[in-house]
Write a structure and sequence with these properties.
Protein name: DUF1684 domain-containing protein
Strand content: 25-35%
Number of domains: 1
Structural class: alpha+beta
Radius of gyration: 19 Å
Pfam family, one: DUF1684
Helix content: 10-25%
Oligomer: single chain
Organism: Flammeovirga pectinis
Keywords: Signal
Length: about 200
């Protein structure tokens, strides 16, 4: 092997290593922010008693294979609908687009939704909602599914990172109207990434 080729391979290795470490730190920072939110008396959904006992969420090991590039297909002229929630409240959403991606060698499709209420607010005008269920529910994750927050993409692809999947507030407290993932957003696989349903 020539010195040049050897040098190139070494540089590629270290570049990949640095990228992986940067990604891990990014997800750890996200997890710390979520833990901080749940400890904050003004932001936490927890009761005062539970908040004072709360230490940290439990997460699956960070796995970059759950960060996927998805093909995004805009759904034009979608008919608004009332999304089921954990309460009698039924907020208006519309099916904004379809995403197609490959996870563990298998192709999946999910739908992303836009809240009619939130899109009227400047800070949420690009916000899309991705609720989903999978085979881990009621085992290692919350039985009613998890959520991922994403933004409207500029093109026809978007990144979906299941390492950032989080639980609805209803997993921890009563009195919230948490959207229930539509049946069409079920993934027939175990998504062992993101938040689990227990605390430590």
């Amino acid at each position: 092997m020539s010195k040049f080729l050897n040098t190139v391979l070494i540089l590629l290795f270290f570049s990949s290593f640095i990228y992986a470490q940067t990604y891990i730190e990014e997800i750890k920072s996200y997890q710390e922010e979520l833990n901080t939110e749940y400890k904050d008396k003004d932001e936490s959904p927890l009761s005062r008693k539970d908040r004072l006992k709360f230490k940290a969420h439990t997460f699956f090991n960070i796995d970059e294979t759950y960060k996927v590039e998805a093909e995004f297909e805009r759904i034009n002229d979608a008919i608004p609908f009332k999304m089921e929630t954990s309460s009698t409240s039924k907020p208006t959403y519309e099916k904004y687009g379809k995403i197609t991606f490959t996870l563990k060698g298998k192709e999946y499709q999910l739908y992303v939704y836009q809240s009619h209420r939130l899109r009227k607010m400047e800070q949420y005008k690009d916000y899309l909602f991705l609720p989903f269920t999978d085979k881990t529910n009621s085992k290692t994750t919350y039985g009613a599914g998890r959520y991922i927050e994403i933004s409207i993409p500029e093109g026809n692809t978007m990144i979906i990172d299941f390492n950032k999947a989080y639980n609805p507030y209803c997993a921890y407290a009563e009195g919230y109207a948490c959207p229930i993932p539509p049946p069409e957003n079920y993934l027939d696989t175990e998504v062992e990434a993101g938040i689990m349903y227990k605390t430590k």
